[in-house]
Queue: 2 jobs
Job 1
Amino acid sequence: MVAAMARLDDTASLAAAEAQISRDAARRLDIAFRGGAGIFSILVLLIAWEIFARSGKVTAFMLPPFSAVAERIYADAIGGELWRNLWVTMFRAITGFAIAAVGGIALGAVMARSRIVRWFFDPIISVGFPMPKIAFLPIIILWLGLYDVSKISIVVFDAIFPVVTATLAGLAGVEKELIWSGRNMGASERELMWQVALPAALPQILTGLQVALPIALIVAIIAEMAMGGYGLGGAMMSASRFADSRGVFAGIVEIAIVGYALIKAMALIRRRLLVWHQETAERH
Amino acid sequence: MRATLSYLPLVLLAVAWEAIARLNLVDSSALPPLSKVGLAWVDLIRGGELVNNGAASLYRGSVGLLLAVLGGGGLGLCMARWRLLDVFVNPLVELFYPLPKSALIPVTVLWLGFGDGSKILLIFLGCMIPVTIGAYNGARGSDHALVWSARSMGANRLRMMWDVVVPSALPELLNGIRTALALAFILLVSSELIVSQQGFGYLIGYLGSTGSYEGMYAVVLTVAFLGFAADRIYQLFIQWLLRWRD
Amino acid sequence: MDGQSQIIIERVNHTYRPPRGRPVLALSDVSLDVRPREFLALLGPSGCGKSTLLYLVGGFLPTETGRIVVKGKPVTAPGPDRGIVFQHFALFPWKSVRANILYGLERQRMPRAERERRAQAFIDLVGLSGFEDSYPSQLSGGMKQRTAIARTLAFDPDILLMDEPFGALDAQTRALMQTELLNIWKRTPKTVIFVTHDVQEAVYLAERVAVMSARPGRIKAIIETKFDDRDPGLTRSKEFVEKVDELWNLVREEAIKAQSIKAQENQEKKPSS
């Protein structure tokens, strides 16, 4: 039964593992983007795709040429379908992410301050974080139906865990001298939380958000695939059901672009918010 | 004793669940009592559904993850040592990292159908990148002094890879695998939920659509527990493997 | 109320309780009086509890046994009458130099124009003009510590608690900062308790040096170190060198004891981990 002995530390280390991967990927994304290497490699990939698809080694069903896929995306964009799906997916993913962000930071902050709240949520967080929460999707559908509420709920349910652990770890890591300085200058407990502890924990909280964002996207798309309806995931799934391989590949390209843009935006926000931080100073 | 006390909240949740369901505070199909879920679990084990479907899922998950670890780990280590490979492959890693991996589900179905192959491919593709990044970073961070001293002692490239680079890359590589493990569960369950005729995810969907919600809850909790237990066991494995560190 | 002692420390014990392992007696029966506007150094080997004593006076740690009285009132909590400067600066990294200094003034509810003026005055005092809008991460160690000192002086505490403030600086910066601190102290005289393990620093800066023993920390001796003129040349004078020598003899044996305590602890730690 050793396996069931979970401490929040164990979960925090999972969070740290995920954060490390995501932070590094975001950093290299940034360098690639700036250096143009990313654009070059995209071009090479697309040309290789086109040549391979036209070589006759694969059928157009298995791999339609990129030009055909691009045509399809263009047609969807003209027809307006693309924008509708894009909007719906972004709305679900970002709303869920935002709720998870605010709720996760708030819960983490309350847990850091109240022993009872901490005692109650500690095992729930440490057992819940490594669970594949997507398995609860059918239960959430059972409770909340097939519409946006249930899709956003499963996104929140999945994305909130890294935010809570990051907030807790960040607040626990605030140097006591910093808190003492604030207290020394006459800050109240409330002011200490808002003006000292949370800003000091911000780098780690942002890292938590950077882990949560891809999770929110992954889950939003799974939820759309499972429940159908509008959205990039739903459109891809129905294309797959009708053996419309161009539609499937159009979906992949669209989702890849959305993922790239969102993660890039998040890295930019981080840099904006952390102008004061060492990591930003080092980069210039 | 302290461990028991710290788990009390979970017990309280379980009791609250039972009470809410028994008192009919919510529709009993939406939330069957925990005790009935437990009975349904026993039935599913006895009937063999849980075991058969579980075996299918575990097979897909472990093969996919194993391929991802071998492929991703090998790729990451080689990228760190051979500059030419680094230049060509690194941008691709960057390109595919932000892709929400669930978008690969319909593509793998298109290529390999509804069976084991598509799930294994999905997990392989989805889980490879975190492993690659972990291995690459770990190997890049390996101490130059160690590499040079191994070379000077006459180790050839392959030997040195195994003796010096792999051990020093290990902590970060293992971190990457841990992330991949969590991702494997997500991709496995969701792909089975969406398109499959076998596996945990399929069983959850099937029981839900036939209205046997106790069974559905039982399978969901089983999968959740397995994901949690896999992470803990893996963590103990890491601790054992890295016991030479302070 | 300008009596003989501004700070009275009476029979204070302090036990440090680590989350794991045995509790450690950090301070044992410490009594010490500090006079108004005195510059007192607390000198001792690392781990002797001198910082703990400082934190107790600051009200950051609760006084368990004995009592600490500041200006006639027992210490119960931190307050802006006792400003503290830490070894690692404890600046708010997300605030500029100016915003760091303003923070304490905002908390004192000082009117806006007044606090802007005051912040600028202290920026000028510590020689940071031109760096008002820099973030701490863009400053050198010496500049960070100047900012921290300005931040604490700005809210005008009667008592300045300094916890090895120059311990993280390189030797040259350290010498410069010592002279500067003396200049500031001459211009705005405050009661200073200055924690250090550097004998020369203690003799150069302080009027009195309280030497502490290795753990558990006790006051081993209190030595007067008054000199007529404290310019940097003082450190080469015969009387200064003799004072340093006298104190060094007192500290040395404690430092050796402290090392063996530490080695013993590491031994104890090993089998369990």
Note: The longest helix of chain A spans residues 189-227.
Job 2
Amino acid sequence: MSREQYTPPTLQDRNAGPSSSSQQSQTQQTTSQPYTGGGFNLTAASLDALGDDSRPIHYLCGDCDARVTLKKGDAIRCKECGYRVLYKERTNRMIQFQAR
Amino acid sequence: MSQQNGDHEMADADADAGAGAEANESAQSEVRQEKQMLRLLPGSTDTAASFAFEKEDHTLGNALRYMITKNPSVEFCGYTIPHPSEPYMNLRIQTDDDTTVFEVLRKGLEDLSELCDVVEDKFSVARDAFNADNPDRAEAQ
Amino acid sequence: MTMAQPLDVSRYRSERHIPWAPLSAEEIEARRLVQINAETVTHTAASDFPGHYGPEQDDSWVVERFRQGLKVDFHHNKPHDAAFSLVGIDASIANAFRRILIAEIPTLAIEDVFFLDNTSVIQDEVLAHRLGLIPLTGGREGLDWLHWFHRAPSKDAFTMQTASDGDETTPVSTHNDYNTIVMTLDIECRWATVEKDGWDGKKKAAEGDVAPEEKYIKSNVYASDLVFHPQGKQSEYFSGENAIRPVNPEILIAKLRPGHRIHLRCHCIKGVGSDHAKFSPVATASYRLLPQITITQPILGADAKKFARCFPRGVIGYEPDAATGEQKAVVKNPMKDTVSRECLRHDEFKGKVKLGRVRDHFIFSVESTGQFESDELFLDAVRLLRAKAERFKRHLTELEEGR
């Protein structure tokens, strides 16, 4: 493949990727549609499934361990203590491992 | 779902069977044909042949080799595992003219089976006698 | 010919040193010995095969002769540790039993772990691996009843693929009550509080108490925290004292701090040690040959004392020598010997002692992990070897019919 033909991976690709757990398959089914290739097919449905950017996301403060809720455009800052390092919460999806 | 039913059938078949591993295997054979694990390698005659045992290793290979070498009409018996990442054990038998490799292999397997019976008997008797003499088997875990 | 002399067949053949077979009882006894010299070990191979000593010596397989020659002697027999001697058996057979004990007797172990939450410091994959290695136990009848779970062969496991090439006889299983045991672990650590526990952990911490058990509740996760959930028919087999449980409830799985939580679900299946060591029913299963010490010339007085010090305590004892009245070294208990060969390093014992091991005297040691009792495991191994022989007898019949 030449440099010009290369298309960077997109949101669409992420949705089409294999799921590692059975719980994921539920969310997958709502978005499942034929993969049309090219990587640039940003349809309304695929964006919907990702959720809009205004959805609040929860973080944990690196200093006081308080739960911080941020929306798009919010300052990255703990509302309790003002600390500027926030951590993502662990995924609430089920993850499967082999005991080997 | 059909698999589930299959498993339930198996349960009925081996409800009264003994040791775990073999019980399940023999039960499976009732549901479907047991897979052939023994193969004759090309170039064999009645008195000199190589057998390929699938999914077997030194455990059966060496024990069977010993039992077959104990047979006076056997000229040669040896086993090899041609490659460590392939699940095959090859057993070579060469016999005198008055018998065939099949008879010899069958006798070897029968002798091995007999041996196990004797060991099981003697072991059980010795164990029971020992336990009777030493009733306190408690141990600190 | 003295008893300790080596039986070198080629020498006999060329010099006509002894009459040709049948062997005398003495010679039969001598060929049981593996000789251990200062630098070498000789006469290691068994020679009890027909034709080895010519046509007169009958070494063929006779089951009655084997039955008479076989001796089983128990040394101790505890559920987690059995030791016994098996005398009159070939190394190939003894080794088959040992190999089956380690790798082919099926047991139950955790195979799949589904993490719903894990905010502890121990990573998911490490925790899953730890859980897998916990020995589980339960009702013997139920464990025998439990079926295999046939996993789909992994795409990158070459050996599995070659073995299952065109093999439609082992289909992939689905999880059901016949082949899968479900266990859960849900535990969260928190500070001790006055309302719930009667004391205040945070206060204790402020006072300088450093013991985690004083400050926190559930700071240690033990194997006993695993909860067994019987599915379907399983409640018939695994209820009351037969419930599936860890052999040792005190196995420490993880350490937590307030706010940490582990919530997971385990699927346990039956497997064999050749697939993964977690399925092995034994911690160790091993054998050694009985050491033999032969004192050929009397070792007396101070020499006897020095001689005894060449061996572990209890191996060598003393007896008054009739000829000199001095103390004479005698072999008391060769079982305790480690065959260090120390006595062969000293000139004063040269030509006075011979070391060896008895080729057909196997001192087995079987240490069960607790799912089954050690002596039962050995019987299982014997039955499994017979089952193998019987299985290939069937295959041989099919092979002959198909020809």
Note: The beta strands of chain B are 38-40, 48-54, 74-80, 88-95.
